[in-house]
Design goal:
Elements (H helix, E strand, L loop, with lengths): L26 H8 L8 E5 L6 H12 L2 E2 L5 H5 L4 E5 L9 H12 L3 E7 L11 H8 L2 E4 L5 H14 L6 H10 L4 H18 L5 H21 L10
Parallel strand pairs: 1-4, 1-5, 2-3, 3-4
Organism: Aurantimonas endophytica
GO biological process, one term: DNA replication initiation
GO molecular function, one term: DNA replication origin binding
């Protein structure tokens, strides 16, 4: 079958609260953002692995609360606002200087505003040099995201396909969910690969197309394992 070169056009992914898929693995975090502004503490840290939905939750809360992102060089302006509301994605990998980060966290702790941060690691495990910053973060409220269960994974797949305006039936969706890597990050990459394959081959998304994409991904993983395996490549002397 002749194929065409798929254009890598942007698609509009929704990060609205109504598009959050609720399951046992993220229920505590969803309940935490929904309970604002009745938070007992003014700093909330959502913890989870890459692709677990942290950014979606942070975006949904920011839209509801009218929160602004914390940016390097913009901390003093943020702190000048009474009762500021701020969001900081990937606090463990952000580009803020530690003194800037401490100023925001400390101001929120003292009642000057509200901060929602996301992190791949628990606050107690963050290795900041400033002891005061570590202690403030260790005292924050934490909502941890668990590994995605079947309900969450299926719901996220439906949403990702819908974001790209791709129709997929329940059987094909179940086929994909039973064979893919069980992470939300993998789901995003896989749906993008399926989209590219469908555009290139001009086919509907069926089990046959999904199998082709899954087999190709599995072969790429095997090739990478061989190339970067534990044994050094042979050399001629």
């Amino acid at each position: 079958m002749p194929s065409q070169i798929p254009l890598d056009l942007p698609h509009q992914a929704s990060h609205a609260r109504d598009d959050i898929v609720l399951s046992a693995s993220n229920r505590l975090a969803v309940e935490a953002i929904d309970s604002w502004p009745a938070w007992r503490h003014s700093v909330l840290v959502i913890v989870g692995p890459p692709g677990s939905g942290k950014s979606h939750l942070a975006s949904a809360w920011a839209e509801r609360a009218g929160a602004v992102p914390v940016r390097r060089g913009g901390v003093s302006g943020l702190l000048d606002q009474p009762d500021f509301r701020a969001v900081l994605d990937d606090i463990d990998h952000c580009d803020l200087a530690e003194d800037e980060l401490f100023a925001v966290v400390n101001a929120a702790r003292l009642g000057g505003g509200t901060l929602l941060a996301t992190s791949r690691r628990m606050p107690r495990d963050l290795t900041f040099a400033l002891a005061d910053l570590r202690s403030r973060l260790a005292a924050a409220t934490v909502a941890e995201l668990g590994a995605p269960d079947d309900e969450l994974l299926a719901g996220v797949l439906v949403k990702l396909f819908a974001d790209r305006q791709i129709d997929i039936d329940a059987k094909a969706l179940r086929y994909l969910g039973e064979r893919m890597e069980r992470s939300l990050d993998a789901a995003r990459q896989l749906v993008a690969a399926v989209d590219r394959e469908a555009l290139a081959s001009k086919e509907r998304v069926t089990r046959r197309l999904l199998k082709r994409v899954l087999d190709r991904d599995a072969e790429a993983v095997r090739h990478q394992t061989v190339v970067s395996g534990p044994y050094p490549a042979a050399t001629e002397e």
